[in-house]
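Researcher: Please translate sequence to structure tokens.
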Amino acid sequence: MEFLKLFIVALMPVLKVLLITVLGTFLALDRFDILSRETARKNLNTIVFFVFAPALVCGSLAETVTSKSIVTLWFMPLNVLLTFIIGAALGWLVVKLMRVPHHLQGLVLGCCAAGNLGNLPLIIVPAVCKQTGNPFGDADICHRNGLAYASLSMAIGTIYIWSIVYNIVRIYSSKISNEVKVDNSMFSSNSTLENDPENISNDRSHNDHVKQFEIECTNSNGHVKVSKKEKIMKQVKVLAEKMKLKALFAPATIGALVGLLIGVVPIFRKMLIVNNAPLGVIQDSLVMVGDAGIPAMTLLVGANLIKGLKGLGKQVPIVVGIIVVRFIILPVIGIGIVKGAIHFGLIHPDPLYQFLLLLQFALPPAVALSTITQLFGVSEGECSVIMLATYSCAAFSLTLWSTFFMWLVL
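Model: Translation complete:
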């Protein structure tokens, strides 16, 4: 009977997400013509990326995270990082075992690495606290603490997603575009160089210049003299170009950093957060804008599922691999990690906090992946297929895992 009560408590928040997702799917039907057009979804994605997501992260963190809570919750960034590292490692195994096509490898790695650490915990954890008979004590205290934990989870996840997963997808998408460019350039060079003597002479002069450069750089023994400093600088330059450090500071990442700054620095809290704060209207406006982020992102998931219905049969092995990683292997590993941390006294004894740490291992792929693939214009259809399958399974697996996690921490 106790387990049945926990199951009902866990089911209600998942149903809320499912209902909003279904609404997004209906809005994407041609009959309604609201989110059915590609431009409409792309425009909403852009608004989410530049406006809703940073406002949501900034407003939630500024209100709920303090310097004291940061010290108490230090294990959460490590826990989230472990979900990304272990998920990416398991994703690499899926890529190798399933022989995933090159253009889908970045997407598969991203889906296995990044869970939905944003809107799902922010909906599920406070909603669990509001349920009658919730196992975490007083509803108001539970709701306040749950909001703080979920906000920090969302901020950390946002930083990792837009710094790690964003660059994984970007690197693989750039490899694809480079391969296309190489193929096109080879085709055009074969057709022009054979018939254009000017191109032949230019090519010869370029080869002569390279040979002259090689002679200047070699010593009497024929070995190239390159200092260690030059090698290191070259490697740093290549790494910076590959990472594109500007991409680390996506709008949501900047919002997370600003929110943490406001929450942690006392003078900023007094000006923006506390009762009768002189600049409190700014925080209120930010929260109002951010509140639109969760339903907008969830509606986009539902709208993008329409694409997934058309190509589900083609990607079954890949989808099965991702589902096994995210809903079976990762949660089991997560139980071992969190229970081990509790045993060694690394986590403070709050069942709600422990529940969220476990939940981070059992979430479906991040909604931001849909935004990222649309920003790069790569694997959008396949991403919709994966989202359709994983979020359909999440309605059942997330309810079962949430029930088991609540039973485990009490």
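Researcher: Any highlights?
Model: The chain has 17 helices and no strands.
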